[in-house]
Design a protein that fits this description.
By secondary structure, the chain is an all-alpha fold. Helices cover about 80% and strands about 0% of the residues. The chain is rod-shaped and about 155 Å long.
Length: about 130
Amino acid sequence: MSNISINLLLTLTLIYTRGFNRNLYQALQAWDDSSASSINFSAQVHAMVDELTELAKTVDKKRKNLKHEALRDETNVTNAEAVAEKARSKYESLGSELERAISASRGESLPPQKGRFGMARRSGAQVRFNVFM
């Protein structure tokens, strides 16, 4: 081969090699940029997961606290209702006793005294013969 054809061959080989190397370098650089973006994205997602986990823990603590307070308040209301019912019952019994005492002081006959469950008391004979008032 002649010296010119060898030089031409080397020049063409060098041109092809430079183009391949340049393209390979650009491809590797694009890959690195893509990898860096992926790593950055995964770090951001991880940070969001940590924030959401902390938020979930905070919400769970608040939910449990509210549940405890609601149960405590419900118990307080139940106790208050029981006390109110007891006071109402005592008020009614004292009112009926006062009414009977006033009637007795006027010389009137006593109204029938009611027993448990709002039912009039009956004598033994009334119970035996099932006589209602």
